[in-house]
Amino acid sequence: xxxxxxxxxxxxxxxxxxxxxxxxxxxxxxxxxxxxxxxxxxxxxxxxxxxxxxxxxxxxxxxxxxxxxxxxxxxxxxxxxxxxxxxxxxxxxxxxxxxxxxx
Length: 103
Fold this sequence. Notes:
With about 100 residues, the chain is an alpha+beta fold. About 30% of the residues lie in helices and about 20% in strands. The chain has one domain (about 5-80).
């Protein structure tokens, strides 16, 4: 991760844990990874994806590595892995019944 991005993403994750009421510790490693440690022993690592990959971040430690393209994706995957009560919202776009019936 770039020197500018890593501290901001780490701070955002720490603030997000407070909002989600998840007790976790966020630390930055020398290699640029952000390591998340939860009180129950679970650990996740967020790192920049390899150059040329079609995604920007890789999250490791929640079973298989997950790859995401955005900060939103990082937050969603991390929260799903650490917050047992998390239910992601889904947005559905559809025509209204009046539009479906026609004139």
